[in-house]
Amino acid sequence: MTQDSNATAVFLPTTMCEPCSGVQHNWRRARGHAELLQGANRREFRDERTVTVTRYQCDRCGAMWDYENNKANQHAGWSLVCR
C-alpha cells in the first residue's frame, strides 16, 4: 500500500471551524473563506505543465489548505494538508 503525496488530512468535526467545513474540495475556482491567510506559493508539474499551488492557513482553527490553480483540471482546487 503506497501513500499518496497529495493525501488529504482527516480532521475531527470539533477541530475544523464552520467556515473551513464549508469549503468545497477539489473544484477549481471554488471560494475559500475570509479567515484563510495566504502563505507561500510553489510551482509543481502536472501532466507536462506547470501549475501554481498556494498554501493557506485558517486563522480560526489552524487548518492548513493548498489551493491548486490548474486551468487544465477542473477538479484541482482546495485540499486539506496532512499535519
Describe the structure.
By secondary structure, the protein is mainly β. It has one helix and four strands. It has one helix at residues 18-21; strands spanning 36-46, 49-58, 64-69, 78-80. A four-stranded antiparallel sheet has the order 1-2-3-4, with no helix packed on it. The longest helix has 4 residues, at 18-21. The model has no long low-confidence stretch (mean pLDDT 85).
Task: Describe the structure concisely for a colleague.
With 83 residues, this protein is mainly β. The protein is built from 1 helix and 4 strands, in the order αββββ.
Q: Counting H and I runs of at least 4 residues, what is the number of helices? A: 1
- N/C terminus separation: 20 Å
Query: What share of the residues does DSSP label as strand, in percent?
Result: 35-45%
- Low-pLDDT regions: none
Helices and strands: which structural class?
mainly beta
Order of helices and strands: HEEEE
The number of distinct β-strands equals 4
Strand order of the largest sheet: 1-2-3-4
- Nearest-angstrom radius of gyration? 13 Å
Instruction: Report the major sheet.
Output: 4 strands, antiparallel
Tell the overall outline: globular
Helix fraction by DSSP (H/I, runs of at least 4) = under 10%
Question: Taking all residues together, what is the mean pLDDT?
Answer: 85
Topology record:
Blueprint (H helix, E strand, L loop, with lengths): L17 H4 L14 E11 L2 E10 L5 E6 L8 E3 L3
Antiparallel strand pairs: 1-2, 2-3, 3-4
